[in-house]
Amino acid sequence: MELLKSQRAEIAKVLAESGLSPREFIWEDIKDAQSLVHAKTKYYFTFDRFKDDDQGSLIWECVFSPGPEELEGYDYASSWYGVSSIFTEWVKRLKAEVEAEDPWAEVEEEFAGEWTTSNEKFTVTEIKKLDARLDEIKAYLLEHADDNEKTKKSIETGIEELKSSARAIGKKDWAMMFAGWFFTQCADWAVSQVHWQHVVTLLLKSTKTFLLQS
Question: 3-state DSSP call for residue 58?
Answer without folding.
Answer: strand
